[in-house]
Amino acid sequence: IGEHLLTIEEFSTLLTGIESILNSRPLYVSASDEEVLTPGHFLIGRPLVALPEKEIENISPSNRWDIVKKLKNHFWRRFQSDYISQLNPRGKWKQKQENFKINDLVLIRDENLPSTKWPIGKIIAINPGSDNLVRVVTIKTQYNTTSRHISKLCRIPIESTDSRRP
After folding, report:
1. Residue 107 to residue 84: CA distance in whole angstroms
2. Residue 150 resides in a domain
């Protein structure tokens, strides 16, 4: 892969790590209980977990495990960037876009979390600027309440139970 020649075991380990990244992404969030449904729920009946890995920049060529982790981290950064971009398309600043609203469920972008963590929050307050555009919101997560810039958030579309009925 790239400039690295991997053994079968190393390549298998890399693919397993990539598989866990793909199977931990959110598919659906229930509006009633804010539980996130992932492909992992269908595979093992619960969310996938992973140990946090520190970023590897300077690796020794003799340490093959570090090479595999570096490749997985590279995939994670690219996947997160591309996937988030698809969830949160942005037009030109000249185009008017819908503001975030209270009770919107959002995916919180956090580059410091492990690859199987996709934090979800609910907007509890909006902070519009003098131009009435929302740039910062207050969100409640499973663990705390915090303020985030909207560039670090992606609205999660929620289908109401009424709209699913024929």
Report:
1. 9
2. no
What residue numbers bound the domain in which 42 lies? Answer: 8-87
Give the pLDDT confidence of 141-150 residue by residue, as tens digits. Answer: 888 999 998 8
Distance CA 166, CA 162 (A): 9
Distance CA 149, CA 144 (A): 16
What's the domain count of the chain? 1
Tens digits of per-residue pLDDT, 2-24? 677 778 888 888 888 888 888 88
Gyration radius from the chain CA atoms: 19
pTM above 0.70, yes or no: no
Quote the CA–CA distance of 115 and 17 in Å, as a whole number.
Answer: 9
Q: Is 68 part of any domain? A: yes
